[in-house]
Amino acid sequence: MFLNEILVILLIATVTKSAEIATNATVEDGEQKLAEYVRAILNHYKQKDPVGLPGVPIPDPMDIPPLNYPITLGSIKMTNIKLYGLKDFRIHHVSIDMAKMIADVAVTMENLIVRGNYTAKTLFSSSKGPYTVKLKEVYGQVVAKLRVESEGYLEAEEIKTKINPKQIDMKFEGLGGLASLLQNIMNSLGKFIFDSIEPYISKQSDAMTRVEINKRSREFPQRFPNSRSNHRQIVRKQGYDPYEIPDYNTTLGLFSVEMTHTWLTGLSSFHRVGNISFTLVNHTVEGNMEIGTQRLQGTANWEIGIVGGLLSRSGTVKFTVEYVKVGVIVRQSLDTRNKPELQDIQLELGNIQVRFDGAGTLDYIVEFSVNVLPNVLRYQIMDALESPVKRRIQEELNYINVEEMIMENVEKYDKGDMNFTLPKFG
């Protein structure tokens, strides 16, 4: 059913997008196939504590331009600067908001190390040697604003990168006579070095991310139709449209209410509504989306009476439900040996309007039924739909072999076949 769309988007947002970043030297030069990269990434996330991503084109070490820091009656010149540790990141979270077209990616790094040579000179003395700056507990964040260009492909419109260390430690060797002077300015010097290299790192990250998103997005389908007629046919064939709702009875004060032979028509008119969002936390992707139906039609037999059977009225009712909306949250571990799971489902019914047939004399019981039956129908439909829908979605998810489906599709891509395989349900 609509899970095809959820899972295709879900998988593209996780493993495939990781592979896109990794394929900096893939099919174009014929040296390595996309399938090999994806297989490496799948195996990577089977580890207990995956660090970095195999094949990601992050320079490590990264060369930093020379820096110059003014001091009293002199200056400190830093050269041969290299930054180590950028590839040793852990993904903290990923959030993709399809309505706002914003992707937010955050990573953490235990340490970033800056190494280089310095030359410090004043009017009275000088010293030189190697130095080390350690940036501890670094938090990095990339926020990308996306847009769909004229041909329907996804493009990165604006990218911003920020990194922030919790602590900065510095060590200079061979200070000699300048030791006391430099020790007094270590805190401000450490901040200066970080503030100087942070824009450079951000610029490099922004440029690389933009190129990779714009390049790789053209290699994967970006269009997901708002509704699928074949899914609607499946819904009808499986007996969900028209759908017979189980009989329902309840007691409201002195009155008993019974609804029987209730039929609902139009559930196959579902289409995607609202926002689609994805988050990645603790190596688990969570996809959140909503589907809704068009106006539904229904009929039912009703009977309302005073408790004890002293007086009763019965008849038939035709009703309309403005819409049915289902919010679905599906989770998939990046360890693709695990099955996708339905985390939550929320059911919402629009306004219900009723029209009575065979009501008989318009007495106080009929008047009561006019006021109460829409709410009774609401409870009846909610009870009838929520559990079966939840059970059916999880049953379909259990059929999916995520890793097998991913590998089948990337192997097709390597052969130039863009007819990707969708999940097959029972």
Low-pLDDT regions: 1-31, 221-227
- Give me the strand/helix succession: HHEEEEEEEHHHEEEEEEEEEEHH
Shape: elongated
Discrete helix count: 7
Strand content: 35-45%
Any idea how many domains? 2
Q: Going by CATH, what is the homologous superfamily of the largest domain?
A: TULIP domain
Profile the largest sheet: 11 strands, antiparallel
**CATH class categorisation of the largest domain:** Alpha Beta
Query: In CATH terms, what is the fold-level topology of the largest domain?
Result: Bactericidal permeability-increasing protein, domain 1
Which structural class fits the helix and strand makeup? alpha+beta
CATH architecture of the largest domain: Super Roll
C-alpha-based Rg, rounded: 31 Å
Signal peptide: 1-18
InterPro entries: Haemolymph_juvenile_hormone-bd, Mite_allergen_7_sf, Mite_allergen_group-7, To_sf
Keywords: Signal
Protein name: Hemolymph juvenile hormone binding protein (JHBP)
Summarize the structure in words:
This protein has 426 residues and is α+β, with helices and mostly antiparallel strands. The chain folds into 2 domains: 58-219, Bactericidal permeability-increasing protein, domain 1 (Super Roll), CATH 3.15.10; 229-414, TULIP domain (Bactericidal permeability-increasing protein, domain 1). It is built from 7 helices and 17 strands. Strands 1, 2, 3, 4, 5, 6, 7, 11, 12, 15 and 16 form an 11-stranded antiparallel beta sheet that branches. Strands 8, 9, 10, 13, 14 and 17 form a 6-stranded antiparallel beta sheet that branches. A hairpin with a 2-residue loop joins strand 11 (271-281) and strand 12. Helix 1 packs across helix 2. It is elongated and about 110 Å long. 26% of the residues are buried. Residues 1-18 form the signal peptide.
